[in-house]
Amino acid sequence: MVDTSDEWIRSRTGIQERRILREEGKATSDMAVEAVLPLLEKTGINPGDIDLTICGTVTPDTIFPDTANTINAKIGAKNAWGFDINAACSGFLFALSTGARFIESGKYKKILIVGADMMSSIIDYEDRSTCVIFGDGAGAVLLEAVEDGTGLIDEILKGDGNGREFLHMKAGGSMKPASAETVAGKMHYVYQDGRQVFKAAIRGMVDTVEKMMSQNGLTNESVQWLVPHQANRRIITSVADGLDFPVEKVMLNIQKYGNTTGATIPLCLWEWEDKLKKGDNLLLTAFGGGFTWGTSYLKWSYQA
Questions:
Q1: Is 168 one of the catalytic residues?
Q2: What is the pLDDT of residues 118-146, one digit of tens each?
Q3: Is 229 a catalytic residue?
Q4: Mean pLDDT value across residues 52-72
Q5: Stretch (H or E) spanning 182
Q6: Of residues 86, 232, 259, 281, which has the active-site annotation?
Q7: Residue 115 needs a FRET pair 20 to 30 A away by CA distance; which of 35, 148, 262, 292 works?
Q8: How is residue 155 annotated by DSSP?
Q9: Is 173 helix (H, G, I), strand (E, B) or coil?
Q10: Residue 304 has what pLDDT?
Protein backbone atom coordinates (compact mmCIF):
# COMPACT_ATOMS: atom_id res chain seq x y z
CA MET A 1 0.00 0.00 0.00
CA VAL A 2 2.78 2.44 0.92
CA ASP A 3 6.56 2.63 0.74
CA THR A 4 7.41 0.92 4.02
CA SER A 5 8.41 -2.42 5.47
CA ASP A 6 7.78 -4.58 8.50
CA GLU A 7 11.19 -3.59 9.90
CA TRP A 8 10.49 0.13 9.41
CA ILE A 9 7.13 -0.11 11.20
CA ARG A 10 8.45 -2.16 14.13
CA SER A 11 11.53 -0.01 14.68
CA ARG A 12 9.68 3.32 14.58
CA THR A 13 6.40 2.45 16.29
CA GLY A 14 6.86 -0.84 18.13
CA ILE A 15 3.74 -2.22 16.43
CA GLN A 16 3.76 -5.86 15.30
CA GLU A 17 0.07 -6.53 14.74
CA ARG A 18 -3.34 -4.82 14.93
CA ARG A 19 -7.04 -5.60 14.88
CA ILE A 20 -9.33 -4.16 12.20
CA LEU A 21 -13.14 -4.43 12.24
CA ARG A 22 -14.12 -5.44 8.72
CA GLU A 23 -17.62 -6.89 9.16
CA GLU A 24 -20.20 -5.02 7.09
CA GLY A 25 -22.61 -2.94 9.14
CA LYS A 26 -20.52 -3.06 12.32
CA ALA A 27 -19.19 0.04 14.05
CA THR A 28 -17.64 1.41 17.23
CA SER A 29 -20.67 0.57 19.39
CA ASP A 30 -20.43 -3.11 18.44
CA MET A 31 -16.87 -3.33 19.74
CA ALA A 32 -17.95 -1.51 22.89
CA VAL A 33 -20.73 -4.03 23.48
CA GLU A 34 -18.15 -6.85 23.32
CA ALA A 35 -16.24 -5.12 26.11
CA VAL A 36 -19.24 -4.15 28.25
CA LEU A 37 -21.16 -7.43 28.33
CA PRO A 38 -18.31 -9.51 29.86
CA LEU A 39 -17.76 -6.68 32.36
CA LEU A 40 -21.40 -6.84 33.47
CA GLU A 41 -21.24 -10.62 33.69
CA LYS A 42 -18.06 -10.51 35.77
CA THR A 43 -19.50 -7.98 38.20
CA GLY A 44 -22.90 -9.66 38.36
CA ILE A 45 -24.71 -6.49 37.30
CA ASN A 46 -27.90 -6.44 35.27
CA PRO A 47 -27.89 -3.96 32.36
CA GLY A 48 -31.01 -2.41 33.84
CA ASP A 49 -28.97 -1.35 36.89
CA ILE A 50 -26.68 0.91 34.86
CA ASP A 51 -27.45 4.60 35.43
CA LEU A 52 -25.15 6.27 32.92
CA THR A 53 -22.74 5.39 30.09
CA ILE A 54 -20.00 7.75 28.93
CA CYS A 55 -18.10 6.85 25.77
CA GLY A 56 -14.77 8.41 24.82
CA THR A 57 -14.53 8.18 21.03
CA VAL A 58 -13.60 10.12 17.89
CA THR A 59 -15.24 7.55 15.64
CA PRO A 60 -18.90 7.54 16.72
CA ASP A 61 -21.28 5.28 14.82
CA THR A 62 -22.97 8.43 13.56
CA ILE A 63 -22.66 12.16 14.27
CA PHE A 64 -25.92 11.71 16.15
CA PRO A 65 -27.36 9.89 17.97
CA ASP A 66 -24.38 9.52 20.26
CA THR A 67 -22.61 6.17 20.54
CA ALA A 68 -23.10 5.89 24.31
CA ASN A 69 -26.89 5.74 23.93
CA THR A 70 -26.50 3.25 21.10
CA ILE A 71 -24.40 1.06 23.41
CA ASN A 72 -27.12 1.29 26.06
CA ALA A 73 -29.73 0.16 23.56
CA LYS A 74 -27.64 -2.78 22.37
CA ILE A 75 -26.88 -4.08 25.89
CA GLY A 76 -30.41 -3.50 27.19
CA ALA A 77 -29.54 -0.72 29.66
CA LYS A 78 -33.09 0.64 29.58
CA ASN A 79 -32.73 2.85 32.65
CA ALA A 80 -29.51 4.55 31.58
CA TRP A 81 -28.72 7.72 29.71
CA GLY A 82 -25.43 8.52 28.06
CA PHE A 83 -23.23 10.83 26.06
CA ASP A 84 -19.95 10.83 24.16
CA ILE A 85 -16.74 12.70 24.93
CA ASN A 86 -14.53 13.70 22.01
CA ALA A 87 -11.03 14.29 23.35
CA ALA A 88 -9.15 12.04 20.91
CA CYS A 89 -6.61 9.81 22.68
CA SER A 90 -7.37 11.48 26.03
CA GLY A 91 -11.05 10.56 25.74
CA PHE A 92 -10.97 7.72 28.25
CA LEU A 93 -9.26 9.87 30.91
CA PHE A 94 -11.71 12.72 30.38
CA ALA A 95 -14.66 10.29 30.54
CA LEU A 96 -13.28 8.66 33.69
CA SER A 97 -13.00 12.01 35.45
CA THR A 98 -16.47 13.06 34.32
CA GLY A 99 -18.01 9.80 35.49
CA ALA A 100 -16.37 10.14 38.89
CA ARG A 101 -18.08 13.49 39.41
CA PHE A 102 -21.49 11.90 38.77
CA ILE A 103 -20.69 9.15 41.30
CA GLU A 104 -19.56 11.73 43.85
CA SER A 105 -22.87 13.56 43.47
CA GLY A 106 -24.55 10.56 45.10
CA LYS A 107 -27.32 10.48 42.51
CA TYR A 108 -25.74 7.86 40.25
CA LYS A 109 -24.62 4.47 41.52
CA LYS A 110 -23.31 2.50 38.53
CA ILE A 111 -21.61 4.16 35.57
CA LEU A 112 -19.98 2.58 32.53
CA ILE A 113 -16.91 4.31 31.13
CA VAL A 114 -16.07 3.15 27.61
CA GLY A 115 -13.09 3.95 25.43
CA ALA A 116 -13.69 2.77 21.87
CA ASP A 117 -12.53 3.68 18.40
CA MET A 118 -12.79 2.18 14.94
CA MET A 119 -9.80 4.09 13.62
CA SER A 120 -9.76 2.14 10.36
CA SER A 121 -12.85 4.15 9.35
CA ILE A 122 -10.90 7.45 9.28
CA ILE A 123 -7.44 6.34 8.15
CA ASP A 124 -6.03 6.88 4.67
CA TYR A 125 -4.18 3.65 3.91
CA GLU A 126 -2.05 5.50 1.39
CA ASP A 127 -0.69 7.87 4.05
CA ARG A 128 2.38 6.29 5.62
CA SER A 129 2.47 8.79 8.48
CA THR A 130 -0.81 7.43 9.90
CA CYS A 131 -1.77 4.13 8.28
CA VAL A 132 0.88 2.06 10.08
CA ILE A 133 -0.11 3.28 13.53
CA PHE A 134 -3.80 2.90 14.23
CA GLY A 135 -6.00 -0.10 15.04
CA ASP A 136 -9.58 -0.75 16.15
CA GLY A 137 -10.56 -1.65 19.72
CA ALA A 138 -12.69 -1.01 22.78
CA GLY A 139 -12.41 -1.30 26.54
CA ALA A 140 -14.71 -0.55 29.46
CA VAL A 141 -14.67 -0.07 33.22
CA LEU A 142 -17.40 0.20 35.85
CA LEU A 143 -17.51 3.06 38.37
CA GLU A 144 -19.17 2.66 41.75
CA ALA A 145 -18.83 4.48 45.07
CA VAL A 146 -16.28 3.18 47.60
CA GLU A 147 -15.41 4.22 51.15
CA ASP A 148 -12.04 2.52 51.60
CA GLY A 149 -9.77 5.19 50.16
CA THR A 150 -9.36 3.50 46.79
CA GLY A 151 -10.62 4.57 43.37
CA LEU A 152 -9.93 7.70 41.36
CA ILE A 153 -7.95 9.93 43.70
CA ASP A 154 -6.87 12.88 41.55
CA GLU A 155 -6.54 14.10 37.99
CA ILE A 156 -4.77 16.79 36.01
CA LEU A 157 -6.46 17.37 32.66
CA LYS A 158 -5.22 19.83 30.06
CA GLY A 159 -6.14 21.19 26.66
CA ASP A 160 -4.62 23.57 24.11
CA GLY A 161 -6.67 24.23 21.00
CA ASN A 162 -3.65 25.80 19.32
CA GLY A 163 -2.39 22.27 18.76
CA ARG A 164 -5.31 21.42 16.49
CA GLU A 165 -3.31 22.21 13.35
CA PHE A 166 -0.93 19.33 14.04
CA LEU A 167 -3.47 16.52 14.56
CA HIS A 168 -6.99 16.80 13.20
CA MET A 169 -9.53 15.89 10.55
CA LYS A 170 -9.88 18.59 7.90
CA ALA A 171 -13.56 18.13 7.05
CA GLY A 172 -16.81 16.62 8.28
CA GLY A 173 -17.80 19.29 10.79
CA SER A 174 -19.71 22.55 10.49
CA MET A 175 -16.63 24.47 9.30
CA LYS A 176 -16.24 22.25 6.24
CA PRO A 177 -19.24 19.94 5.78
CA ALA A 178 -18.93 16.79 3.72
CA SER A 179 -19.09 17.34 -0.03
CA ALA A 180 -17.85 15.73 -3.21
CA GLU A 181 -14.86 18.07 -2.98
CA THR A 182 -13.92 17.11 0.59
CA VAL A 183 -14.26 13.40 -0.15
CA ALA A 184 -12.17 13.66 -3.31
CA GLY A 185 -9.58 15.65 -1.37
CA LYS A 186 -9.28 12.96 1.32
CA MET A 187 -10.27 15.46 3.98
CA HIS A 188 -12.16 12.94 6.12
CA TYR A 189 -9.03 11.12 7.21
CA VAL A 190 -6.71 11.73 10.16
CA TYR A 191 -4.00 14.29 9.46
CA GLN A 192 -0.93 14.28 11.69
CA ASP A 193 2.31 16.23 11.85
CA GLY A 194 4.20 13.44 13.56
CA ARG A 195 7.21 15.45 14.68
CA GLN A 196 5.15 18.13 16.44
CA VAL A 197 2.85 15.57 18.06
CA PHE A 198 5.81 13.45 19.20
CA LYS A 199 7.44 16.35 21.06
CA ALA A 200 4.22 17.70 22.55
CA ALA A 201 3.06 14.25 23.72
CA ILE A 202 6.24 13.55 25.64
CA ARG A 203 6.31 17.00 27.17
CA GLY A 204 2.63 16.92 28.16
CA MET A 205 2.61 13.47 29.72
CA VAL A 206 5.90 13.89 31.59
CA ASP A 207 4.82 17.28 32.95
CA THR A 208 1.42 16.12 34.25
CA VAL A 209 2.81 12.88 35.72
CA GLU A 210 5.49 14.83 37.59
CA LYS A 211 2.92 17.29 38.93
CA MET A 212 0.59 14.47 39.95
CA MET A 213 3.33 12.67 41.84
CA SER A 214 4.42 15.88 43.56
CA GLN A 215 0.96 16.94 44.73
CA ASN A 216 0.14 13.45 46.04
CA GLY A 217 3.49 12.61 47.63
CA LEU A 218 4.18 9.76 45.21
CA THR A 219 7.56 8.40 44.19
CA ASN A 220 8.70 5.95 41.53
CA GLU A 221 8.88 3.35 44.27
CA SER A 222 5.35 3.94 45.58
CA VAL A 223 3.75 3.83 42.11
CA GLN A 224 3.17 0.22 41.06
CA TRP A 225 2.22 0.92 37.43
CA LEU A 226 2.45 3.67 34.86
CA VAL A 227 -0.35 3.24 32.29
CA PRO A 228 0.43 5.40 29.26
CA HIS A 229 -1.67 5.88 26.16
CA GLN A 230 -0.30 3.48 23.55
CA ALA A 231 0.56 5.99 20.82
CA ASN A 232 4.02 4.91 19.79
CA ARG A 233 6.61 2.80 21.58
CA ARG A 234 9.24 5.52 21.24
CA ILE A 235 6.91 8.03 22.88
CA ILE A 236 6.20 5.62 25.74
CA THR A 237 9.87 4.85 26.38
CA SER A 238 10.73 8.57 26.14
CA VAL A 239 8.09 9.35 28.78
CA ALA A 240 9.47 6.63 31.06
CA ASP A 241 13.01 7.94 30.52
CA GLY A 242 11.91 11.50 31.21
CA LEU A 243 10.44 10.36 34.52
CA ASP A 244 13.33 8.01 35.27
CA PHE A 245 10.57 5.43 35.75
CA PRO A 246 11.41 1.69 35.65
CA VAL A 247 10.36 0.28 32.29
CA GLU A 248 9.27 -3.00 33.91
CA LYS A 249 6.47 -1.08 35.65
CA VAL A 250 5.16 0.52 32.45
CA MET A 251 2.16 -1.18 30.82
CA LEU A 252 2.89 -1.77 27.15
CA ASN A 253 0.74 -3.59 24.59
CA ILE A 254 1.02 -1.38 21.50
CA GLN A 255 2.82 -4.25 19.79
CA LYS A 256 -0.47 -6.23 19.77
CA TYR A 257 -3.11 -3.60 19.06
CA GLY A 258 -1.46 -0.48 17.67
CA ASN A 259 -2.91 2.89 18.66
CA THR A 260 -6.62 2.33 19.35
CA THR A 261 -7.03 5.96 20.51
CA GLY A 262 -9.67 6.02 23.28
CA ALA A 263 -9.34 2.29 23.91
CA THR A 264 -5.64 1.97 24.74
CA ILE A 265 -5.73 2.61 28.50
CA PRO A 266 -8.75 0.38 29.31
CA LEU A 267 -7.20 -2.36 27.14
CA CYS A 268 -4.05 -2.13 29.23
CA LEU A 269 -6.05 -2.38 32.47
CA TRP A 270 -7.89 -5.40 31.06
CA GLU A 271 -4.67 -7.19 30.10
CA TRP A 272 -2.89 -6.45 33.38
CA GLU A 273 -5.90 -7.06 35.64
CA ASP A 274 -4.58 -10.32 37.09
CA LYS A 275 -1.36 -8.55 38.11
CA LEU A 276 -3.10 -5.72 39.95
CA LYS A 277 -3.59 -5.79 43.72
CA LYS A 278 -6.03 -3.81 45.79
CA GLY A 279 -4.41 -0.56 46.83
CA ASP A 280 -1.90 -0.45 43.97
CA ASN A 281 -1.06 3.07 42.85
CA LEU A 282 -1.58 3.56 39.10
CA LEU A 283 -0.84 6.67 37.05
CA LEU A 284 -2.85 6.83 33.82
CA THR A 285 -1.56 9.32 31.29
CA ALA A 286 -2.54 10.24 27.75
CA PHE A 287 -2.08 12.78 24.98
CA GLY A 288 -4.43 13.37 22.08
CA GLY A 289 -5.25 15.54 19.10
CA GLY A 290 -6.49 19.02 19.62
CA PHE A 291 -4.28 19.06 21.83
CA THR A 292 -5.65 17.25 24.90
CA TRP A 293 -3.64 15.54 27.63
CA GLY A 294 -3.50 14.67 31.29
CA THR A 295 -2.75 12.23 34.09
CA SER A 296 -5.10 10.48 36.52
CA TYR A 297 -4.09 8.92 39.84
CA LEU A 298 -5.99 5.70 40.47
CA LYS A 299 -5.74 3.52 43.56
CA TRP A 300 -6.85 0.07 42.42
CA SER A 301 -10.06 -0.99 44.16
CA TYR A 302 -10.14 -4.78 44.09
CA GLN A 303 -8.15 -7.99 43.92
CA ALA A 304 -8.62 -9.77 40.58
A1: no
A2: 999 999 999 999 999 999 999 999 999 99
A3: yes
A4: 98
A5: helix 180-184
A6: 259
A7: 148
A8: E
A9: coil
A10: 81
55, 72, 86, 89: which one is catalytic?
89
CATH 1.20.1250.20 applies to domain 6-148: no
Could you report the per-residue pLDDT of 268-303, keeping only the tens digit for each?
Answer: 999 999 999 999 999 999 999 999 999 999 999 998
Give, in words, the CATH class of 152-299: alpha beta
Q: Considering 55, 86, 229, 232, which one is annotated as catalytic?
A: 229
Domains 6-148 and 152-299 equal at CATH topology level: yes
Provide CB contacts within 8 A for 181, sequence distance 6+: none
Can you give the pTM of this predicted structure?
A: 0.97
Q: Is 55 a catalytic residue?
A: no
How many Å apart are CA 60 and CA 129, to the nearest integer? 23
Domain coordinates in residue numbering, the chain: 6-148, 152-299
Contact status, residue 238 vs residue 252, Cβ threshold 8 Å? no
Give, rounded to a whole angstrom, the gap between the first and last alpha carbons of the chain: 43
